[in-house]
Each structure stands twice: as C-alpha cells, then as structure tokens.
Amino acid sequence: MLDSRWLTSFYNLRFQEKVGNLEYVLQEKYQNWLKEPVLNDYIMMSSFWGRNNHFNDNPEALYRYIEKNYPNMTTIIVLKDAIRSYPEYPNAKIVSYGTADYWYYLARSKYFVNNVNFTEPPRIKREEQIEIQTMHGTPLKTLGFDVLGDWKDSTYNEVLRKNGNWDYLTVPSDWVANYALKAFRVSPQIIKSGYPRNDKLFIDYKM
C-alpha cells in the first residue's frame, strides 16, 4: 500500500514542475495574458472544483452538446490534478487548477461554464468574457447566503464577487430562479431551460 506522505510529496513536486513559481505566474504572466485578445472560440469548463479529477453534471452535458454541434470550438476542461490522459474527452484540452495553463486560459477564453465557482481570488473576469452558471441540483436545502453563521465579512465579499461573474444562470423553474437570485444575491440573465444533464433522459426515453 502506498504511503500517503509519499503521494503528497509526489503531487507537490509535480505541481511545482507544472507551475513553477505561482506568484511569478500571477504577477507577471497572468497580467500580460489579460492584455492579449480574448480567444472567441475557446470555452473553459469545470464541475465541482474538478475534485477527484472528474468532469460531470451539467457542464459535461453542455460539453457533449458543443462537441457535437460546434466542432470549431476549443474546449478547456479543468480538473483538480490531471495526472493521466482522458480519452473520454478526445477533443478537449485538459488542464489542472492553479497551473500556468489554467491561468492562461482563464485570462483568454471567451466563455466559461461551471456548476460551482472558479475558486481563485486573483481571477479577473474581463468585460468581454461570458460565464454560465448551471447549478447542480434543485435547492431543497438552504444554500448561498441563506446559510446563516458561515460567513465572515472577507468570505462574504469574496463569494459575492465570484457570484457576480455569472452572466447567465440555467434553472428548471421560476421557483428555482427566484430562490437562487435571492440566495446568491446576483442578477444574471435567467435561462429557464432545465438542467442540461436531464436532456439525455428526454432524448433516450423520448419523454
């Protein structure tokens, strides 16, 4: 059985190999990339912070649709730590959170899709960039700023800033739309299309 300390050291070394000096990337390279033109046919996608190196839920459903209907688009899929090849996404470029590639495409991609938030506080969303928030379920619990007692001032302001990056919000109903706008304290354009992941049910079972 592998020692967890060895695995941690391995991932840390590998991260350093990929990223190098992260402070340098942020202060020098990222700022320069923000000055370069936006790549209008690039779309960056992730789900659940890329945890367990999985890509799924509503963003994956949109990826499958784009792959089939817009082959000219270049898709960037973000995982926690992409340590293998991903033949299940043959036409996508896979990058890891926090790497230089990640910050490059964060600076230059035109479109963004996520079912949570892109997490890094230093991110600067450019005026011409468009972000779609798909959510990841029907809110049958408290969420966002309705979760009392969990918010310090600094955390509140940071999450509010991230939520403010959303240009579009996909929802299955007026009720979800109204609740999400209140809980997340945002005002994106609402797309009442249902959740993209459920489209397959209607197609496969002709519902």
From TrEMBL:
Gene3D superfamilies the record matches: 3.40.50.11820
Pfam family, one: Glyphos_transf
One annotated Gene Ontology cellular component of this protein: membrane
Xref: InterPro entries: Glycerophosphate_synth (IPR007554), TagF_N (IPR043149), Teichoic_Acid_Biosynth (IPR051612)
One Gene Ontology molecular-function label: CDP-glycerol glycerophosphotransferase activity
PANTHER family attached to this UniProt entry: TEICHOIC ACID GLYCEROL-PHOSPHATE PRIMASE, TEICHOIC ACID GLYCEROL-PHOSPHATE TRANSFERASE
Protein name: Teichoic acid biosynthesis protein
The species this protein was found in: Lactococcus lactis subsp. lactis
